[in-house]
Amino acid sequence: MDTPQHEFDVVVFGATGFTGRLVAELLYASYGATGELRWAIGGRDRDKLERLRAELGGGDLPLVVAHSEEPASLVAMVRRTRVVCTTVGPYALYGSNLVEACAREGRHYCDLTGEVQWMRAMIDAHQDAARASGARIVHSCGFDSIPFDLGVLFLQEAMLATHGVPARHVKGRVAAIRGGMSGGTAASMIQVLEESSRAPAIRRLLADPYALDPAGSPRGPDRNDQTGAVWDGDLERWTVPFVMAGINTRIVRRSHALLGHPWGEDFRYDEAMLMPEGQGALRAKLRALAMTAGFAAFAISPLRAVAKWFLPEPGEGPGPDERLRGFFDILFHGVHERVEVRDRKRARAPMTVRVTGDRDPGYGSTSKMLAEAAVCLAKDELECEGGFWTPASAMGRRLIDRLQARAGLLFSIVDSGERAQQKRLSEKR
């Protein structure tokens, strides 16, 4: 179902915040103020919006004033647009009224949230309304979790094209990354920890590998996220825990469920960080121990209160030079164990792909990903109907193409598995 008549294609809500401003700058650079994309900047403070418009140079760029805690103002805003692109977090504190307004009014929505407990609450509360109205609600359209969600989809498409079967097990491995933290991300992280410290049910939800799957979906074989140092025999490197795994893995599994389990009900997915080549078990174990201790410290309320003094404030974040120097490089290795009909011997069909970004992952790349996700929702012909979706299940290949053309991401095949097939043939001889 399409959205009703609209004045704008996209409203960037929270445009005067750190990430919102980056999204607005990108849209203005790509589409101008009155070009093919009809868009507006939104927020609660008209004076700040006017200053941003002047700094962008977009004298004709429309402004929309709305407040996250004033539902009537949000309804008035969403009725004017096809898509709301919001950067106003922590979303558990400031995002619920906007999701409800979009779901009920039939307007599409995308955000940057990594707050699993809040996404679960929004799905449960508003899925029926979104389905009925035709609103496509897509969470996690930044570094968490677009490169991972679409990276797995890209790998599976390549697996099917090359081997004729999907990968039953996919490993996401962060090979290299450089970037800073903004105050908004820090605030969201603190919010999740504080909610979980107060509510055992939220702690259980966050520990559930299938926390975001649709109700009644079959559960696969995945268990807990990696906590220690583990040797990866396929990539021949040591691995350590990845801080975003608790978000990304849930999004990937939800995508698989929403797509109808095309990779099998026994599909497995896990994430970790690769240690640099040549670094051995001792360094990996020490690094994993340090990371685990850091996670544990943040879970303790008094230590969390102290940490707040050292974290950036909302509205703060890495500067232009730091964002420009940032990047990410992620490998996805998939394998399908299958029995060959000819000789009944078990064989492996492997594949490795890479997803890279040319800017700071949390802000330089994230702002480009969110901007293109919003335009994709507004402009592209998508097959999904109303409801809560993921980037892969809602936009899939269309978003991959946009990200490669306009957002500095690159999806490529590193190893199609043909070398492994040739090795098996030589061994048979």
Order of strands, main sheet, comes to: 3-2-1-4-5-6-13
Low-confidence stretches: 423-429
**How would you characterize the largest beta sheet?**
7 strands, parallel
Portion of residues in beta strands equals 15-25%
In short:
The protein has about 425 residues and is an alpha/beta fold. The chain has helices spanning about 20-30, 45-55, 70-80, 90-95, 95-105, 115-135, 145-165, 185-200, 200-205, 245-260, 280-300, 300-305, 320-325, 360-380, 390-395, 395-405, 420-429; strands at about 10-15, 40-45, 65, 80-85, 110, 135-140, 170-180, 230, 235-240, 270-275, 325-340, 345-355, 385-390, 410-415. A seven-stranded parallel beta sheet has the order 3-2-1-4-5-6-13, sandwiched between helices. A seven-stranded mixed beta sheet has the order 8-9-10-7-11-12-14, sandwiched between helices.
